From TrEMBL:
It comes from the Bacteria. This is ParA family protein. InterPro entries: DNA_Partitioning_ATPase, P-loop_NTPase, VirC1. It comes from Rhizobium setariae.
Length: 238
């Protein structure tokens, strides 16, 4: 089962928000998602405790370097995607988590000059490749992008990163009130009331485009998982 890790050693980069958007979208598409919450602040766990249980989503709080492998082994039979939310600061888990990942996503605030936290993760990925010949697929996702920002400004950031051979997702995560409200309501975008949340449709479109682009880079194992009827056939054949 693919492990997708969100990493940026800076708090506020948009990791937890992106984790939530990807997880809820994958769950909506019928995948069983296990979120590994490695942030001691437990934002995702708190989100999960706030609302009604969200179908297809399991959240494991307090994941650490000592427990991550056991947790993954335990949940593997009931999981199509593991999504790991790392803490804001540099943590002992970072290198190990990156090494275990099928894809690392690095949210970097679209128009902020301070991309240091993202650069640290990119340096670590490069170090693993150069020194240990371990190549972990990874992409930068521009986060908290103002909806008024021109494509040209975004293109400039992309070209800058492309010059360093870093892939940037075509879909930026836009700054949306709906994405902040998710944490208060403890639900997904699809359970929100469009009369109370502004631009909800735009927010849904953006989250869906983001998740679909990520899926393009990560194999969708759910598609190869036998369907219920196929499983019956397999069971009876056994
Ligand atoms: N795309 C976005 N739209 C609106 N608010 C956002 C967005 N991304 C992040 N935020 C807000 O910014 C703050 C930090 O984001 P968060 O996802 O927690 O970052 P991190 O996990 O990297 O520390 C939170 O208050 C969050 O609600
Ligand atoms: Mg976070």
């Amino acid at each position: 089962m693919p492990v997708i890790t969100f990493a940026n050693t800076k708090g506020g980069a948009g990791k937890t928000t992106a984790v939530l958007l990807l997880s809820t979208e994958l769950a909506r598409q019928g995948n069983r998602v296990t979120i590994l919450d490695a942030d001691p602040q437990r934002w995702i766990s708190r989100w999960h405790e706030t609302g009604d249980a969200t179908a297809n989503i399991t959240v494991v709080p307090y994941v650490t370097l000592a427990t991550i492998q056991t947790v993954i082994a335990q949940h593997r039979p009931r999981t199509d995607y593991f999504i790991l939310d790392l803490p804001g600061a540099s943590s002992p888990l970072l290198a190990t988590a990156i090494g275990m990942s099928d894809h690392v996503l690095i949210p970097i605030q679209g128009c902020a000059m301070d991309a240091k936290g993202g650069a640290q993760v990119l340096e670590l990925l490069k170090y693993l490749e150069d020194k240990a010949n371990i190549r972990i697929p990874h992409s930068v996702v521009l986060s908290r992008v103002n909806s008024m920002v021109t494509t040209r400004a975004l293109q400039a950031v992309k070209s800058l990163l492309a010059a360093r051979s870093v892939r940037v997702l075509d879909t930026p995560i836009i700054e949306r009130a709906a994405y902040r409200d998710l944490f208060d309501y403890g639900c997904s975008l699809y359970e929100m009331d469009a009369t109370r949340v502004s631009n909800l449709d735009r927010a849904k479109e953006n989250a869906e485009a983001f998740a679909n682009e990520v899926l393009g880079y990560v194999p969708n194992r759910a598609a190869t998982r036998p369907s219920l009827s196929q499983r019956d056939v397999l069971r009876s054949a056994a």
